Amino acid sequence: MADLSQTFDVLIAGGGNAALCAAITARRAGATVVVAEHAPKPMRGGNSRHTRNVRSLHHGPTGVLTESYLEEEYWDDLRRVTAGKTNEQLARVCIRASEEAPKFLESCGVVFQPSLSGTLSLSRTNAFFLGGGKALINALYRTAEELGITILYDTEVQHVVVNDGFATEAIVSHRGFPATIKFKAFIASAGGFQANREWLRQYWGDAADNFQIRGTPYAQGRILKDLLAQGVQEVGDPTQFHAVANDARAPMEDGGLAMRLDCVPFSVVVNRDVERFYDEGEDVWPKRYAIWGRLIAQQPGQVAFAINDSQAQMNYLPPVFAPYRAGSIAELAAQIGLDAAKLEKVVADYNAAVQPGTFKAQSLDDCRTEGLTPPKSHWARRIDQPPYYCHPLRPGITFTFLSVKVNEHARVMMADGKPSGNMFASGEIMSGNILGQGYLAGFGMAIGTVFGRLAGAGAASLVRN
Amino acid sequence: MAQESQAVVDARRFMDVCNACRYCESYCAVFPAMTMRRSFSEGDLTHLANLCHGCKGCYHACQYAPPHAFGINLPATFAEIRQESYAANAWPAGLGRLFERNGTLVSLFASLGVALALILAVALQDPTVLWSAQRGAGAFFRVVPHWLMITLGVATFGFAIVAMAIGARNYIRSTGGAGGAFATGPAVETASDIATMRNLGGGGHGCNDLDDSFSMRRRWLHQALMYGFLLCFAATCTGTIYHYVFGWMSPHSFFSLPVQFGFWGGLLMMVGAAGLMQVKIVTDPGPVSTKVAGGEFAMLGLLFLIAATGELLLAVRHTGAMGMMLAIHLGLVFAFFLLMPYSKMVHGLYRGIALLRNAQEKRRMTPVASGG
């Protein structure tokens, strides 16, 4: 049983990759460290449990990364997906330090693998964890335990006492009992607020009820809200998040990666009013998967329907839940509760607009529509080979971007523009410093690892002085 | 068609999730084999279950493992499907039921084997051979007559071979073939997979033998048991050649081939069997099926006892304890032969077939869809 009467050098709120990278770094630098993880042990690790890889800069082939991925290309990729809504200084800090991320994680027992199938062809830019994020989390906790870090499961940090930008103690619920933890430095790594539906409703209204939370249900944003209420500077648009097209029948929380659907480029997608609303074939899926969650969130009822036929079935990863299936478009419409005549017309109009071309599932092909609004720019084939299929879609929210402001040392910034005396942040809770909108696969883990290490090093050096 | 078992129903649901997730693709052969399919018949699932070596990496890495609602637990579920496949394909058909309460069966048979050997020795020979020292060529046969030893050995082992061969044929038929016509490349790959236990390497870093940490312990222990067993088999073969080809009667000297094979093989078997039992006792019970545990412990125990009594027999063969020890050892060995087709021992056969089928399929099938 942990002794909570002592004063720890560092308290870390959160238990995912960003928290543990901070904890391990601080401990290795000699600090006494306590990690407060809200979840019980089997569900530990926040959203990191559902991750798979980390985007990592590299100058040449490494054991797990091919070719090279240099700073300017990485920066370019980030600038493009965020449409420039980023902080170049912090982004470049993250990009440069991401080179060290795989090596650091390996030093914590994480094993990487060569990427094989079903991985969005990311083997050049992203290093894959053998077994995925939960295996990474297992290794990090094992290392943390070996280093003598105190780990508290079922422990929610509910309030941090902050005076003049200086945190002194935290009020926690420890296995259901109230407790106080004293510390010299505090690191907030407690995630976004995506699992807090009431908070989401402030911006999205009733639509928030239809958002599926892909990851941990423990991301309630309690520390985020607590810090922002105590003079910590806010950054990021509260309506922005990383979201993908999920199967509409997925669990409302914690459905994880396997609930996402990759069928969009090989389908036509209509909303509840049986209208197409976006170019399904705009670009290759790895570059478009992260915008579809938001697109669906903006549709009436926050639902959409991907319609295709038998010839598309082998072009995308098999879904967990079988699609609806019917011998005619009208029957399919009846199954999913859409207006049959309208759906028949949408498909007929689309079929009439399809131009001849050579279909290539994995690259930008010349199969497109002509005279259709919105167009389908690639992979447009006539939908005329029964049986017909429908995958119902809902937005799957990964994490929100509203954040506490940090500087390049992961130090939390106060609203008056001064750095906090002893507060740091890493991971989703500060992701909005860099991600104004959009997302790059594996970038969340890069932010978590890089700023986790910065926060851990900063906190340890602060308490040593 | 018989109703599918709960394990098969569960496994199909798990595969639907796994095939959309694929995080475990680098652990073992099961996941690449899964990606070559989009739907899973009972035969497919039985094939994948027998391809599974129970390394447990996929359980500890699973974002959907219990207490997640999906509750994915492939190692335990596949272990149950394996056992169901042993029972379903056993010959004669009715004897598949022997896989229920297998621990009790194995223990009972082993005890009966020992009792029978002792009774036969007493009934057919002078009872004093059981406690008087016997020396020189043919000493063993004064305890158990040569004709009887050979008859029992050939009959029990022969029966085991026939029963297991028919079981293998049943298995191949019921799971949908061995992956096409026999070819050399896949056969060599299969032999190498078995010889090195590659799939107990967890993709190179070992398995989650005890918990979520990686180790090679189970791989090395299984190697010790398997190669120890093969060395003991080699001891029997060389002994037979000595007897019939050269006319050299046992007992042979300590440095003779049969005794050397048996001595080192027995030691390896003891280390392997005891170590594997220890792993089974201390491992995280999450990915373990308790339904199959009894039979597995009993078979490991029997293998340990066979090896231990063999070593003891070597140690006491010039004393008055030899007769008793020989009878016990032979009783255990003959019981083991009879039990082989109805015990965990068939896993080697079905695992081998699954590896061969997988090696064949890899060469002609490709993963279904990538992209996501």
TrEMBL record, chain B:
Quick check: keyword NAD in the entry? no
- InterPro entries cross-referenced by the UniProt entry: Citrate_utilization_prot_B, NarG-like_sf
Entry keywords, A to Z: Membrane, Transmembrane, Transmembrane helix
Write out the transmembrane intervals. Answer: 105-124, 144-166, 224-245, 257-276, 297-316, 322-342
Entries under SUPFAM superfamilies matching the protein: 4Fe-4S ferredoxins, Respiratory nitrate reductase 1 gamma chain
What is the protein named?
A: Tricarballylate utilization 4Fe-4S protein TcuB
Gene that encodes it: tcuB
